[in-house]
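Sequence in, structure out.
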Amino acid sequence: MTNILIGAISGIVSGMGMGGGTILILCLSLFLGKEQHVAQGANLIFFIPTSIVSIAINIKQKLIKWKTGLIVSGFGIIGAIIGANISINLDTKRLKLYFGIFLLCIAILQIYSLFFKKEKKK
């Protein structure tokens, strides 16, 4: 039941464009006790069908700028390969630490962005 709940929440958040993978990795490592490497691998597999569905919906609504999408995708693939190689060579403790720092930075940016948008509207 926990697996289904984690998958559903991650899928919903991912469909809203808010980084469902981050939630998936966090839930798999904290609640299910999976190693960070395993959680990140599962996230990569989870990402494939959610991406396909998102792309299909955006193509149908004519919201894709193909030139920009291809450039970003190309560099994303290069970054994924580099990141995977770095991740493989890190022990689990360091990978968890770096992932935690990454999440903290994203949270700070989100909070700052939310505050800045409210100030800008006034």
